[in-house]
Amino acid sequence: MKHSNFWQKKSVILWLSFLIPALLMGGYFAYRGMAPFGNSSILTVDLGQQYVDFFAYFRSTLLHHFDTFFYSFSKDLGGDMIGIFAYYLMSPLNLLILFFPGKSLTSGILILLILKYGLSGLSFAWLLTKTKLQKGIRVLGFSTAYALMGWMIANQLNVIWLDVLILLPLVVWGLIKLVNENKPWTYIIWFTVLLIDNYYMAWMVALFTIMFMIWQLSSQHYGWHTSWHRFLKYIGSSILSALLASFLLIPTFYSLTQTKGTYTQQSVHFKFEYFPFKMLGKLMPGSFNFDQMPDGEPNIFIGTLLTIAFVLYLFDRRHSIKNRIISSLLTIFFLFSLCFEPLDLLWHAGQFPVWYPYRFSFLMSFWMLWLAAHTLTPDFHVTWRQLIPIVTVITGIYVYLGLNLSSFTYLTWGQLLISIGMCVVGLIWLTIPRYHAPILYDLVFFLLVGSEVVTNAYTSLNNISYVTQSDFGNYTTQLNKTVKTIQKKDTGFYRIGQTFMRTKDDPMQADYNGGSHFGSTLEPSIPSFMGSIGQPDGDGFVTYTNGTQVSDSLLNMRYFMASQPTQSIIGGRATSSILPAVSTKPDLSRQKAVSSDSLTKTTKNNNALAIAFGASDKITSLNSKTSDPVARQSKIYQTLANDKSTSSLFEVQNFDHVTFDNVQSASKITGTIFTKQNLIKNAEVKMTFTPKTNESYYLTFGSSLDADSGSYYLNGKKLSQYPTFRNTVVINVASNQKGEPVTLTFKLKRQTLWMQNVSLYKLNQKHFNRLNTTLKSESLHVTSHSNTRINGTVKINKNHQVLMTTIPYSAGWHAKVDGKPVATKKAIKTFLAIPISKGNHHVQLTYRPPYLITGISVTLVSILGIAGYQFNKHRKQNKRRF
């Protein structure tokens, strides 16, 4: 009896619902040796390439400079940050990260992840106990299955989304209270929290709440009038939640219209995205691997027994026929959403996901678990006669999967056999009445469900590789050290370039102004501009790794960090792997060394222009359509300096000697498609030139020349180049190398190699120096600066000038010249420019996120409206009493 009472205690169950998933996953992470338990880490894919840097940025924002909540020059050349915070960083649980600086950040993320596993289980257990759907040990089976559902396992690397599993049961409880008790405030509060926490997940939950309201109303015996009244109250409550969250949602919405929203799908195809029966494979344990990340089926695994219970609900006569019909229709809608393109797009707010498809499938899993919890009540069991159709259908599923196993890359016969074994035990359990031994019966249920979801978790995660802690820790430590050395010596405003890179968000990791970024809220004008001047770019990223003297000068790249040519061993790894090279830059020999250690060397670029400088107003009307990146750089620089010369800064050069090995000869290199003459032999094209001067030489490199097509060498050493680019890039191949032969070798990896846009250029150093001197003579002298405010003085020597900046244009930037507001202009379709007259001026640039004040005002008015309504309501109630 004591044991029975123990398991009935709500507090015990809730504690265990948190501890069980937390300990199960914590144990797995410890077994894998993930930091702080070993030399592996939780970092993989986007968590390692993006989110970890955002978490470091989150720390620096809260601990050092809160203005970077609104804007940051660590985001490519500068960008709005409200969108990033709203999508990635608004979870209150992220405060845990504040206690984990530098290389220990990975440990903080792991602990954060374990906490989210535990809280997800706790939240679902709390919902089940509040609704009295389940109690005792049974709750633990459901809560563990919820916390370790297939979606959670597949998306644990997307730790930014996981709060939704914690908040979803609370939102659902709010809906239940609204329908059953006509009390909306629980729903309003928790849906508001979800909107603030992650608007993207909130959109999906918002669609689900419509479905859940229909279902919940169908389960009650209300008339049409009452049902309609409750549904209208739900609509009003949802709108009120959005109004309360407007301080964040309105400026975020504007930010999305400038960034991610520009990629919204314009056309919809009414088609199935895959053969729907392939979804059945996702009901098996271990149904996830790396190949499923970019383009897989929805992750809906919750365990065999619970899936069976979910289906049985639709045929369970204990529930009204109306409710079961509506449940079936909603289930069909869900299933179509998981494979039919228009509905898939609806759930994803009109945009196809880039990797991680069917991100809303956690809602299907919740729906399945919710109905299963209504089925597996203490009085439920299946007779042997009822078992026959169930076994028939299940057998058909396993036969289908077995016959088509080769088309399921994530499944093996071992996984199928494990699932069959679990299924058999589960079916037997369903036929046994509970009253014989209730505690043992419930314990078997928990063990059966728990063991299957744990099997799924461990099997799935074993398919994923992770970054080692030493790779992350050693790199991060060195990056922070080098950046701090620069910032200690120079407190001015400048950008820092680098020839090595761990991720495109290194500037956010180490808190410096850079030129690279990877994120879904990247303004489209930035990759468009960067790609046009020869930098690697994509829809969601830019990397400033291929600068010339011209672009380095233009973009205020005052310092460069480069790895030292040493083979010292640190942490058991060679230097070359600690600081992965992503560019070749002989131009650094022209710059002055300012600091160095055993791993890095920092140089100063004295040709770097200020963040703002006087320039010809012709730049605001420049409309260069050239696709040649060096020609575009020259045109921009010459226009800024109002250069009268018709000669480009870059001059085309010829190779002195070209040899062809196992490919046809060609008199012209660029544009030629070289073909292997003997398919089993190696093939290469070798081009040599000898610089006649110490000027800089650059090679343009078309996007067809990727790592899959060939291997590329400079003087016998593999060319360091960031591998992903969609436009022609510019590669620095020589500088200060007069009389020294330079050899470029292209080795074919395939039968053919297209020498797309392969051309050699020389920079006219005298011409460049003259223009550089002109532009530097009207530099803005920055007197104070932050990420949202720049003050300075400037002397403009000529008429018809603008104060040109390399700050990306945004409606949020406001300019004052000599204390008077001045309307800003957009230059080169990218940058902020300010009309200015001849003479000495004081300039102030201030950033205010567009519509932030509007959003705050809407939130405040909503709060005041609620307060007034509640006050008036209580006053009327008090009058009635007296």
TrEMBL record:
Transmembrane stretches, start-end: 12-31, 85-102, 108-128, 159-176, 188-214, 234-254, 298-315, 327-349, 355-372, 384-401, 413-432, 851-871
Species per Swiss-Prot/TrEMBL record: Paucilactobacillus hokkaidonensis JCM 18461
Annotated PANTHER family: INTEGRAL MEMBRANE PROTEIN, INTEGRAL MEMBRANE PROTEIN-RELATED
Keywords: Membrane, Transmembrane, Transmembrane helix
Pfam families per UniProt: YfhO
Name this protein carries in UniProt: Membrane protein
